[in-house]
Amino acid sequence: MxxxxxxxxxxALLLSLGVGALGNAWAADGRLAVIxxxxxxxxxGWSLEDLALIYRRKKQFVGSARVQPINLPAQHxxxxxxxxxxLHKTPEELEDYWRDLYFNGISPPFVLASEEAMIRFVASTxxxxxxxxxCVADKRVVVVATIDGGPACxx
Amino acid sequence: xxxxxxxxxxRIIGAACACAGRAACFVPAWLGLAAVAWTTxxxxxxxxxxxxxxxxxxxxxxxxxxxxxxxxxDTGFTLGGYVTGEYKHLDGEASRLRSSHASAFVWWEGMxxxxxxxxxxxxxxxxxxxxxxxxxxxxxxxxxxxxxxxxTFSDALALRLGKFLTPVGRWNQVHADPLVWTTTAPMVAQTxxxxxxxxxxxxGNVPVWGRAVGYSVYLSNGREWRADSQEDPFAKVLxxxxxxxxxxxxxxxxxxxxxxxxxxxxxxxxxxGVDLYWSRGGIEFSAEWLLTRGTAVAGQEIDPDRDHxxxxxxxNPVPNPxxxxxxRSTRGGYVQGVLPLxxxxxxxxxxxxLHDPRTITFVRQHxxxxxxxxxxxxxxxxxxxxxxxxxxxxxxxxxxxxVCVLF
Lengths: 155, 407
Prior knowledge:
The structure holds two protein chains of two kinds. Chain A is α/β, with parallel strands linked by helices. Chain A has helices at about 1-20, 50-55, 75-85, 95-105, 115-125; strands at about 30-35, 60, 65, 70, 110, 130-135, 140-150. In chain A, the strands form two sheets. Chain A has a five-stranded mixed beta sheet with strand order 5-4-6-1-7, sandwiched between helices. Chain A starts with a helix and ends in a 5-residue tail after the last strand. Chain B contains three helices and 18 strands. The radius of gyration of chain B is 21 Å and the shape is globular.
């Protein structure tokens, strides 16, 4: 019963995120998938609001596990889509924010060069969370949320 | 390290760091580091994206990112700092060129819930005229800015022990030269309260309607670590700060503290403050308002050892408000706007004021300037300030410029 309820909630979350992203400025049919490790990473608690707090380093723990957000490079279409949909700012607009936090010993999320590098790192790092095109996500990772309307699939 | 040039820079940085271990080498080492960092940053500014980005750490590897520090592999250590060169041309004074700050900070995050942070600042390290002691800035000295340890129980609760920046207002939390838009700080950020506390604090971020409400509660019994000779440290303080995000671009801060200063024989004082910060698309608006109330006792307010505390500063034209007894209320604030003029160039305007009915009627200072931020770590600032008309003769006007490099 609990499993059924969890699946239902998960489905509702995916649906709500997908619907929420409709009508944005990205006139593409791609779907961004937020991923965590397939073995052991927490699979709930990944609302857009949570992701925003995590990627701003305001939320460090999901459950009792420390979370490590990972970004794609600032010019990557998925990064720009994710940044605007989740953080409501472009990577460039967040530079002042990160400059202030660096002064207080807080670094922005690490950056990996490609979606494949993202999947490999997330799959092998406890607590890591990243994002890729849903079409490239495979069984090494678990998709915990999706956002519709992003850049077309890169595969 | 993957690329040759970065390895070359790190060799230079390593030599500079080794040199920095000797006090005599501190200034040239830090200036050398700044030059290296600035060169790196200048080339970064030409890249399509000026966003500083760092790959996950690899064991044994060093990674330097301009404006984001040097990460020592997977040890959890990060080294950073900033330097500021400043030029002042004020009415009635000789022009002056100096290195106002050479700051180094290091932090360690080798464990999930533990973090250690330290910052040391060399003030007035290099001056255009070493024989010309500046009584207002205090001359060359080393200040322990911050030294603390954090233990994070959860996102909503972290314990901090040590010396940390006083959680009052927004400016004091991000007062480092490369982070602020102007070389001169508003009067309320300089005179109202000690810049740091040595004690304990509890703080964190509590999610409320999808946004993180930040809070901090702190206390100190006045055992200040290496107090800056230019500051009047807390003898005792209990305070708190709340930061309310009112949208993705807007935040409201509320600060309150009850305290005693070391120089005033246990005179209880209260501080209350509100600050606002809004930013979108390069446009920024910020404002702070602070009020302190206390009851001074005539003849007991001034620490006899603090003879520098008796006069106004040319940059900070505030007479000593504590030379008379009786109840007093001091209030002040600033309003500042930033407007982008180009991709990396910004116009800045600010009005700040201070009101102390016992010593001065009203001081108001206006500032206009431009700031060039070509990359994540460099700021070049030029500003002109002048007081309102009919100000006391202690106020001043003139041009101040600076170059700051965060590395």
